[in-house]
Amino acid sequence: MDKFFGNLHLVLIVGLVLAVGLMFAPYYAPASAALGVFQWLHVFFAVVWIGHLYYFNFVQIPTMPKIPAELKPGVSKYIAPQALFFFRWGAAFTVLTGLILAYLYDELTQALTLAPEARLIGIGMWLGLIMAFNVWFIIWPAQKRALGLVEADDATKAAAAKRAMIFSRTNTLLSIPMLLCMVAFR
Questions:
Q1: Could you point out which of 7, 63, 68, 144 has its C-alpha 20 to 30 Å from the C-alpha of 77?
Q2: Looking at the 3D structure of the chain, how many domains does it have?
Q3: Is residue 149 helix, strand or coil?
């Protein structure tokens, strides 16, 4: 058991096999196989993305000031870069699968233009797009400076850390109504 649970890739593969097996169960009946797959992928990637967003805001940001200086490099050099990898790619794949889902439901245009019949999901989509933009074009570039992944002086690192925190908190704020829009739509 230790060997199995010690291997994240193996655990993920077995989880994927179980999920695919459930897709063939008689009580699993999405409107189409593609919808079922993309709904599942969208939720999976959203959990990865928003889970990391909440980890950063509920755990890492408030805890960092309490960590002794000699231990902080363990977080900034090892944990944060790895977490940011899953955070930003979770965002990208959540948006991609969400757009594909809206297309498969034939509601992409209505949602993006906030047509009355798709206004709630459209608001959720726009909030998600804004959040993903923040991840890729504001938070990630700032974090690269703050963590020293790209060269920056101490003042630039501090300003970048503050910028990343503000936009991460902005995304936390936006995630609350965005999640409501996503779960209340159907």
A1: 7
A2: 2
A3: coil
pLDDT tier, 30 (very low <50, low <70, confident <90, very high otherwise): confident
pTM confidence score: 0.91
Residues 110 and 47 in one domain: yes
Q: 4 pLDDT exceeds 80?
A: yes
Question: Is 105 found in the same domain as 20?
Answer: no
Rounded to an integer, the average pLDDT of 27-51 is 90
Q: 73 CB contacts (<8 Å, ≥6 apart)?
A: none
Q: Over the chain, what is the mean pLDDT?
A: 94
Indicate if 177 and 92 belong to the same structural domain: yes
Query: Residue 25 sits in which domain range?
Result: 1-30
DSSP string, 15-78: HHHHHHHHHTSTT---SSHHHHHHHHHHHHHHHHHHHHHHHIIIIIHHHGGGS-TTTHHHIIII
Judge contact between 42 and 94, C-beta under 8 A. Answer: yes
The confidence score (pLDDT) of residue 185 equals: 62
Tell me, yes or no, whether 48 and 72 share the same domain.
yes
Spatial CA neighbour of 81 closest among 69, 71, 73, 91: 73
179 and 139 both lie in a single domain: yes
Q: Would you state the structure tokens that stand for residue 86, as one six-digit string?
A: 């899953």
Whole-angstrom distance, CA of residue 163 vs CA of residue 25: 47
- Same structural domain for residues 93 and 53? yes
